Amino acid sequence: MSTVEQQVAYIKKYVIYDILKYFGKDYTVVSHTVDFTNGIGFMSTLYTVELKLQLDERIENKTLVVKFMKGSPEFRETSKSYTQFANEVYAYAEVLPAYEHLLRSSHLNTDIVSEFVPHPFLAKFGVFDNLSTDRESVLALKHLKNDGYILEPSLSLRRDQLEAMSALIGKYHALGYATRILQPLVHERLKSGVVPLHFTTAEGQPTGVYDVLHGVAFARFFEYYERQKSIEQDSGLDAALKRLKEKYLDKPTELLERIRTQSCDESQPDSYFSTILHGDYNRNNVLFHYGPDGKVDNIKMLDFQELRFSTIALDLSFFMYMNIPFEERSTIFPQLLKYYHKHMYELLELVLQRNQGENSLTKDQVDQYLSNYSFERFQSHFKRYAFYGVMICMHFLPWLLAEKEECDKLAHLFETNMHGPEFYQLSIDIAGDAANQEIFNIVRHAYEQGYMDEI
């Protein structure tokens, strides 16, 4: 593993000059500063790099954020960091450029893709001389603080924020679908380049991070439900939860893995709703920009570490259950599904129609492809796999509802001894019954929508 000192030295000696190539051979570095901002990244170390560049007589200031994988080799293995950071680099280095090429070949503006994320200057994964003998991840992005972008500190989001996130992820998914249809060889190459990020742990291997997190989440939820079910008195919900408990209490990651793999299995009639995902699409992984009226007018995605190839229901169900205000869920949830689908469908339609004509798609083919992605078919597919988002909320929501001191302690225990009794007990207790009740409300909503029918 690389130390902070090695990472800072690597930035100063190599990263800065790799980035300088992007601006052109006539630029020179006048000065630079590297600020270590530990604690911002949950599994990463982040640095803010200030560059003063000179071109002829003109001085330009550039601000970047440089991200490294952190932790010991043991932590990186158990937390699946090697897979996660390899896939994140892959998103910037291969997936997004392929989508730009698709738009370019379709005679469409590639800004659609470049607007998805802060501009990437450098994205690489592997063993690098002068850094360490271990596999490392180096990602350098434009820092958007000077452009007015901010992380949203609120636990739940307003409608304009939710709609902005829905539109962005819808367009991102649409380009994955369009690549599958128009450039099947490129699609297969991109798909095969994603390192599978399994929820389950292979037999004989140490207990994995997802086993730990979801095991304690299920134990916590069902302990709370046993205390509450006499009050709730819903026989249908009780039967659904009994079925869930009997099948998966001791192995919740098997349900997550089933959703991940079954949804994209080509034997499934709706497997075409699978594509390359963001994987962790939540408010803490996007940057918002606001207009003069205080409403969102732009948005960027960050942190592709949980990137997977699977159903879009993974991205969408987690985003919606985690970010819609609790008291507005029943109203906003169906509206956001339609809003997401509208933006996904419109971009897919535009790209396909640009490829309609001689030596390309016929009108009938375009119509058939678009019918596959109708709202009705999308909604039916989403219903089959939307319980995924509920399961992620079960373990993650208590962290977000906790006091900062508790959360910091839990994060420290996660990094230093996630298998120990102290981490387990704090995971059970953190944020108390207030978090338990919110999780129960999410589960009940999912049951009422039919999202537990196929469990």
Automatic annotation (TrEMBL):
<keyword id="KW-0808">Transferase</keyword>
<protein>
    <recommendedName>
        <fullName>CHK kinase-like domain-containing protein</fullName>
    </recommendedName>
</protein>
<feature type="domain" description="CHK kinase-like">
    <location>
        <begin position="139"/>
        <end position="350"/>
    </location>
</feature>
<dbReference type="InterPro" id="IPR015897">
    <property type="entry name" value="CHK_kinase-like"/>
</dbReference>
<dbReference type="InterPro" id="IPR004119">
    <property type="entry name" value="EcKL"/>
</dbReference>
<dbReference type="InterPro" id="IPR011009">
    <property type="entry name" value="Kinase-like_dom_sf"/>
</dbReference>
<dbReference type="Pfam" id="PF02958">
    <property type="entry name" value="EcKL"/>
</dbReference>
<dbReference type="GO" id="GO:0016740">
    <property type="term" value="F:transferase activity"/>
</dbReference>
